[in-house]
Structure formats: structure tokens, C-alpha cells
Amino acid sequence: MAAGKAARAASRLRGGGSALPGLVVETVDPRFLSNALADLARGVVVVTGTNGKTTTTKMLVAILREHGLTVFTNPTGSNFTRGVISSMLAEIPLSGRLRADIAVLELDEAHALKFASSVKPTHSLLLNVARDQLDRFAEIDHTAKLLADLAEQTTTGVVLNIDDSFVSRIAGRVPDGVTVTYFGVDPSIADRLPELQEADVRFEDEFTPPRPSDADGLLKPHDERSFEVRFGQTERVGPLVLKQRGLAAMINATAAVTTAKALLAKEFRQSGAVAALERVEPPFGRGEVIDADGQPLELVLVKNPAGFTVALGTYGNAPVTTMVAINDNYADGRDVSWLYDVSFESLREKGVALTSGVRAYDMALRLKYDDVAVAEVEPDLGVALERFLTAYRNEPKRIFCTYTAMMALRRDLATRYGLANFGEDPA
Amino acid sequence: MSANKGRIKIVHIYPREMSIYGDLGNTRALASRLRWHGYEPVVHQHHPGNDFPTDAHLVLGGGGQDSGQARVEDDLAHNADVLRALAADGTPMLMICGMYQLFGNAFITVQGERLPGIGILDVTTQGNAKRMIGPVVLRTAYGDVVGYENHSGSTKLAPGQQPFGTVRSGMGNNGIDATEGAVTGNVFGSYLHGPLLPANPRFADALIKLAVERALCALFVPGLIDDEIADQARTRQVRRLVRR
Q1: Which residues of A touch B230 (CB under 8 A)?
Q2: Contact call for B229 and A361, based on CB within 8 A
Q3: Minimal CA–CA distance to A21: which of A10, A35, A37, A34?
Q4: Among this protein's residues, is B217 annotated catalytic?
Q5: For residue A239, cis peptide bond before it (omega within 30 degrees of 0)
Q6: Of the partner residues B16, B24, B150, the one whose CB lies closest to the CB of residue A335
Q7: Domain spanning A2-279: CATH 3.40.50.720
Q8: Which strand ranges, in their side-by-side order, compose the sheet holding B187-190?
Q9: Taking CB atoms and an 8 Å limit, are B232 and A337 in contact across chains?
């Protein structure tokens, strides 16, 4: 473990690379995880699914902390097992036991299962399944199976998305004695589900959603910003307004509230949940707003067709000067075919100022086939960002970017505008 | 104002079940390019159980999951004669990945079970435990072609069956003989997503030319299209992937 701490210090000096020290420890001691997480009084919660992991984890942690719990989490969006170990290293005494009441961990689908092979989660929150990085997961059916396998490994409670047939049917795989709780949208806004998930890969003929019980949280929006989460006929959390915009953020909050309520039981206070959620800042690159020379600059992470479609829908009614940065490294997904499963028509009126990243020309080409004008193509992210910030200095701006492009841009922006670094989330 | 030089009917088969890797982009690209060339594209989506449109000028199919393939098998068998007649008559077709396999003679699963295809392309696919995944560059009759493969099936061409291209980077049909895809008459099969057509406009226009000349019994009169961005996207991938 000392080796890992040294690696963490070294990578801090280099700036970035949040999974590197974890990789060192994982290699040195594979039992590290189970040892460190053993005996946490309130258990270990794993949050996984295709979209919304980082935001939902942050919200759930905020609610639990508001209720007085000491929570260990991996706040960097580094959602591989190694990332979890990396963030632990900073908080663990040399005895190797973590001092916390509960752990809430964001893990990607494959790593969630790998994690469960060394630590059985007490609770798991399964958000959704969508096409994402098919070069890694090959098939959506395979991703859905990973989540079901995780549910089988969970010892106390599983929280499932009631509206996503891939997820809600996992209820049948949950072991006896393990509680199943659902979150979802209120039936009155069922027509807005297409904004949250892809319909074309689901075959409704085989799917009847379960009936929600009083423990299940349902999202009921009042308008574009305000909403409440309903439990049964009478219980309500809200109305509340998040700092992050859009229906996707609201459903993430609904998942977080439902899970917190299941975890806290009688200790759960709706006023505490509301206060915590209203304070949560959007995570880095998930609709985070940066003050760039007096104008707002929004960083929006896009990883897959469902996520990009949701992002365009969320921001579509407020068009601003736009840049799109697409890389094709392993963490981005090496296949960029998915860009053709997104419709970019909402960008047509204003056009796109710049495309950038390794696949800058592929992105420009994609936009061309949707008749969206692109003013400039600049594959180099640093050059593109400089151009974007200076040429459009006096306008509100937005950057849609894949994961590694976001990391590079965020680092550059942190230097320019004195922002907190990754892993040093001020919230 | 684009002069309407004529209507071209594109049939996309099984867009719900067999299009999870962006192959819908091929349909988008052909429709846009037809419009830019001054023709009027009509896109028809064929779903299982519906009557197959016999007046198709161009037929497209994509890749899906195993569960998607299972959902289309019956409909494909039901319409096999129609598709074979259209193919024999010279209708251009482009079948990607899973539909390429189903257009072959058979797919042999890892367990040894033989699932028959419709036999338009003289190829046979063997299921593998290991997937072939990654970016691809081909040398074809239409110049360098770039794309992305993601398949577990290993495909062998029968003697005399022409491939679509020769692999310059990537795995192709089987990772062994450097062939990729198959061509019989105007029917093309390939593993390449990307999607295939947007960044390879020479090949896209070759399909359009075949469709136009068949549909309208007149020479294809191309419009002026600026393909600078497509050419940049393609040549950059070639430069990244091919060692000279």
C-alpha cells in the first residue's frame, strides 16, 4: 500500500491520472479492497448503469452526509475498480481500514461485477442500460446481463429503474430476502420517457412494468426546473430545483432520493434531502458551468447516443455558441459510429463554431450529413479551445465532449481560470 | 433549388432489430447524397411481418445483437425469394455485419449448430469465442475504405467468391486471409461499421449510380458535392492505421 501512496503522490505532481496509483495497489495486493471495506457499519452501495452514474452518486452522497453519515466515495468519475482504490489511498490509515459509516461507489458495468467478486455490495442502484462503448461491451444484452449478475451478488437491497425494461426485469434475479425498490417517472409524464432512453432497442411487447409500491420514488416535474419525488399517495420530497438542468438530472435525483430513503429508513428527513440536492453542484464536465472571461462556458460530457440525445434536448431550447470535441481513446469508446444514431438537427439554426479532438473531421462530417454548418475544424484540443475562447469571447458558450477530451479541456480550463483540479471537488 | 432528376426508393431492412452500431448512418448518407445530387430519396423501413416492397431500388441492412438476429430470421426466410430475385435482377444492396452473415450460406455457432442464411453471398461464417474489434482500412475498387469492425463471426469465402476489399489494417473476414466482405453482382457484404458510407463517398456514389441507372433507365448525372471533410476524415484514419 505504501507503493500506491507513493504512486499517488507522484501522479499528483504530474497532475491527473486518477487511476494510476490504484493500478499499483491492485497489482500489489488484490485483497486490498475487501480488507479496506470490511465492517463499514452501514454497508457498501454500488451505483452503476450506462448514464448518470457520476451525478447520481454525488447526489446520494450529499443526501447521506446531510443526514450526518461519514461517507466514503470515489468523486472523480474514475469509475473503474482502480479509481476506487486510488481515492481510498488518500483516506486510509496504514492499518488499511477505512474510517467511514458507508461507502457509495460509482462503478462502470464491467468493473462493478469485478468489484463484487472481492466485496459483496450491501446495496446496488441500477440506473439504466443503453448503447455505450460497444467496442468494450459488444452488446446491450451483455451489459444488461452484467447488471443482473451484480444484483445477484447484492446482499441487502437493490434499487431498480422501473421504466427501463432491461433494468426492471432484473427484479426476477434478485435473491430471496433482498429488498427490491424502484424509481421512475410518474405515470403522468410517461410520454417524456423517450427523452431519457432509447426506445428502438426495446421490445415493448414483452414488457409490463411492475406496479410501484409506497417505497418507490416517482418523478413528477412541475415545470422545466421544479419537481417533486412522490412516494405512494401522500409522501412527497420537494418541490425542489437542482443546479443542474434537465429531465435527466431530475431522474438522477429521483434515483438518489429513493436509494437514500431505502438506506436511511426512519432516519430519512425529506427537508434534509431537499436541502442537500439543491446544493449539489453539477459534477465536472456534466453540465458544469465555468466563468470564462465573464461569460458562462458549459462543459457537457457525451458518451453514447442516449446521453448525447438527452444533452441536446436539455440544452436545445437555449442555443449558444457550440464546440464539439470527439476523441476515440479506450475510455471514450474507440468506435465513433454511434454519432450517427444521434440527430443534430437542433444545432442547425445556430451552427457549430468548432469541432475538435482526434475525430474532429468525423464529427464535422456527421454534422454535414444533418445540414449543420461547421465554421472550423481543429483536431488539436488546445488550439481549438484557445480559438473558441478568443473568437467568441463575449458570448455564452457550450462544449460537448467525450471523456478524454473533457479531461484535457477541463485541465486546460482549470489552469486558465484557476478552477479546482479533478478529485478536489469543492462541494 | 435542386432539380428533381427522379425518385429513388431506399429500403432499410430491420432498422429496429439490426442497427445498434450506427448503420442507420448509411441510410442517412445515401438519402443526403441523393438529394445533393439532385434526386429525390424515399426511405422505406421494412419491419418483420410487413410486406416486402418489391419496387426497392437499393436495399440496406445493418448489424444487430444475437437477440436481434433471432427476431428477424423468420421474416428473412419468408422474403428470401424476393430478395434473391431482386439481387439477380441487379438491385444494389449493402449488408453490414449481422445482415452480411445472414446473406451468406450459413452461420455455424460455437456449439456447432448450423443456422442457414439466404445464400446470396457464397460465404460461411463460424462463430468464435473471441471478437474481432477495432478500426479497419481496406484497399477496394473504390480506393481506400475506412471503418470499424466488431464481430465474433469468422467468415470464409467460397472459391471464386470475390471479397469487397483487401485488409490494410484490422482483421476483416477472419483475420487470416486478408479479405474483407464479399461482392456478388451488385450485392455487397461487409463487416465495416463507422458507419461505412459517410466517410467513403466514392463507394456511396457507386451504389447510388447503380440504383439510379436501374430505377430510371438513364445515366447517373452526379451533382457537385464538396467531399473535403469526408476525405480528411478518411485519409487521417488511413495515416493513423497503415504503416508505410
Answers
A1: 365
A2: yes
A3: A10
A4: no
A5: yes
A6: B150
A7: no
A8: B40-46, B7-13, B58-61, B93-96, B187-190, B182-184
A9: no
- Inspect the interface and report whether the beta carbons of A201 and B16 lie closer than 8 Å: yes
- Window from A109-118, A318-327, A331-340, B135-144 with minimum mean pLDDT: A109-118
Per DSSP, the three-state class of B34 is helix
List, for residues A346-402, the tens digit of each pLDDT value.
899 999 999 999 999 999 999 999 999 999 999 999 999 999 999 999 999 999 999
Among the partner-chain residues B25, B133, B135, the one whose CB lies closest to the CB of A340 is B25
Alpha-carbon span A253 to A246, nearest angstrom: 11
Q: Which residue did the predictor score with more confidence, A300 or A5?
A: A300
% helix, strand, coil for chain A, step of 5: 45, 20, 35
pLDDT in tens, A165-218: 889 999 999 999 999 999 999 999 988 887 777 655 555 456 677 899 999 999
Of A140, A338, A374, the CB nearest to B22: A338
| Annotated domain spans of chain A | 2-279, 286-417
Q: CATH homologous superfamily of domain A286-417?
A: Mur ligase, C-terminal domain (3.90.190.20)
For residue B124, report the phi and psi dihedrals to the nearest 5 degrees: -135, 135
Inter-chain contacts counted by CB atoms under 8 A, chains A and B: 88
β-strand partners of B207: none
Predicted local confidence at residue A1, as pLDDT = 45
pLDDT above 50: residue A21: no
Instruction: State residue B71's pLDDT score.
Output: 86
- Residue type for B29, please? A
Q: pLDDT tier at A318 (50, 70, 90 boundaries)?
A: confident
Tell me how far CA of residue B230 lies from CA of A137, A157, A340, B38, B196, in angstroms.
28, 51, 14, 20, 11
- Residue B44 designated active-site: no
Nearest CA-CA distance, residue B88 and chain A, Å: 31
Residue A76: predicted pLDDT: 58
| B236 interfaces chain A, CB cutoff of 8 Å | yes
Best probe of the A interface among B14, B16, B21, B192, by most A CBs < 10 A, is B21
Contacts of B236 (CB under 8 A, 6+ apart): A361, A379
Residues of chain B with pLDDT under 50: 1
Q: What is the pLDDT of residue A249?
A: 93
Is the N-terminal amide bond of B41 cis, ω within 30° of 0?
no
Candidates A131, A369, A371: best to mutate against B (most CBs of B within 10 A) is A369
Distances (CA, A) of B75 to A181, B64, B79, B91, B118: 39, 15, 6, 20, 11
- CATH of the structural domain B7-241, one choice from 3.90.1150.10, 1.10.260.40, 3.40.50.150, 3.40.50.880: 3.40.50.880
> The pTM is what?
0.80
Residue boundaries of the structural domains of chain B:
7-241
